[in-house]
Design goal:
Distance between the termini: 30 Å
Organism: Listeria aquatica FSL S10-1188
Structural class: alpha/beta
GO molecular function: transferase activity
Keywords: Transferase
Shape: globular
CATH superfamily: Glycogen Phosphorylase B
Largest sheet: 4 strands, parallel
CATH architecture: 3-Layer(aba) Sandwich
Number of helices: 6
Number of strands: 6
CATH topology: Rossmann fold
Protein name: Glycosytransferase
Number of domains: 1
Length: 176
């Protein structure tokens, strides 16, 4: 599994942390491409170790967690280093990949489509994203919404007089 450190902030890091917590019985090898304190070091290190890790660990499938901009470019570069006998998945978490793609120059749009077409499978978070990516690639696409950890005991009071709406996300203009 390739993506940011599970200790980092953000949605992808949370997804990876959940994989680490709930899929302990599966043999999953993690390769960090981004860390809060060492932003560039982890990505550069990944370039040098990905092939070796695939070979040593006898990895069959590489699962890339991808957002837009730098995240996409890092994973795209790493995907070219995956040996042909190893399959790879692009798990798209980007909340604004459509804007990233639209604002990219023509030559980069072609490269983006090429990278998506090389993947063996693409995972997206919703049907609307599946529709968007189907417009870019012929690669098979699956929809898997992000999992939410549900507490064992709910503190919900059905007789409460007021209703509250709570939202948990990084505070950003695009999320308002």
């Amino acid at each position: 599994m390739v993506g940011p450190s599970f200790k980092a902030k953000g949605g992808i890091a949370t997804v990876i942390a959940n994989f680490r917590k709930y899929y302990r019985s599966n043999k999953i090898v993690y390769l960090e491409t981004w860390q809060e304190k060492h932003r560039y070091f982890a990505g550069i290190r990944a370039l040098f170790v990905i092939r070796k890790k695939i070979r040593q660990e006898k990895i069959d499938i590489v699962h890339f967690h991808v957002a837009q901009k730098g995240s996409f470019y890092r994973k795209a570069l790493l995907s070219y280093l995956v040996p042909r006998y190893t399959h790879y998945i692009f798990h798209m978490h980007a909340s604004q990949f459509d804007l990233f793609y639209e604002k990219s120059p023509r030559f980069l749009k072609k490269r983006i489509r090429d990278v998506l077409n090389r993947a063996d499978h693409i995972v997206v978070l919703s049907e609307s994203w599946a529709s968007f990516y189907r417009g870019l690639t012929k690669t098979p696409i699956s929809v898997i919404p992000n999992a939410v950890e549900v507490p064992k005991e709910a503190n919900y009071d059905s007789d409460a007089k007021k209703n509250y709406y709570a939202r948990a996300s990084r505070r950003a203009k695009r999320k308002l």
